[in-house]
């Protein structure tokens, strides 16, 4: 893979990176997936500054989710963040578009002794800063083949996160979700007992730097669901943010949060993979 194929902010040990995948900068959509139309936007001009008059701020509980410090930092983790989108009156530098502004840090993909490929930053990353979006091909879960052999599937399970139904940890504060955007217009009791994520991001053949970030039971990144162009939680963008201040050259990690014994191999047997994160709270198994 040549350096020219990568983002200018991504530094890769190209001589050692021999994998069959294509680097992409934004989500690709499978042919059988229909993306919702653009949602109505706010009427702000230039940048959004008044949360009382900004309709996007109202969707975030009446305030902006980001502070402008250090180029935009998430004030606190949330169930889902509503960013400004294509129909908003503000410009591309609006603070409420923070996660849409591309890679800000020099990231390096490198090889580890026990965990294969990994990612670190050459720059200091402040707490709450967006690091990268998980990019790949947006697919339907029920049409995936050999899922147990694909380690680059990221299920979009924001509804589970919002309702605290297992999966990734519940975020700190609820947001106002219009009823028309709720999954399939079904009641919440049905969701709690039957709902399974419908879509995923498959980064096995097409992806970006996020696919190389390893799991840790005590990570320095967290997963944040973000809605910008539309408001369908089933198809939210998945962005990784800094959970703490991250010094240069420290490995970047997030919690894959597999349930133990949840992965079944093609032979019908439960797959078991050890965890090598090495943290004090290590669960000893990835799944």
UniProtKB/TrEMBL annotation:
SMART domains documented for this protein: PostSET, PreSET, SET
InterPro entries: H3K9_HMTase_SUVAR3-9, Post-SET_dom, Pre-SET_dom, SET_dom, SET_dom_sf
Keywords per UniProt: Chromosome, Methyltransferase, S-adenosyl-L-methionine, Transferase
Occurrences of domain Pre-SET (ranges): 40-102
Main location: nucleus
Protein name: Histone-lysine N-methyltransferase, H3 lysine-9 specific SUVH4-like
Coiled coil regions in record: none
A Pfam cross-reference name: Pre-SET
Highest taxon above the source species: Eukaryota
Post-SET domain boundaries: 271-287
GO CC terms of this entry: chromosome; nucleus
Record's keyword annotation contains Lyase: no
Subcellular location as annotated: Chromosome
GO biological process: methylation
Domain SET: residue ranges: 105-257
One MF annotation (Gene Ontology) recorded for this entry: double-stranded DNA binding
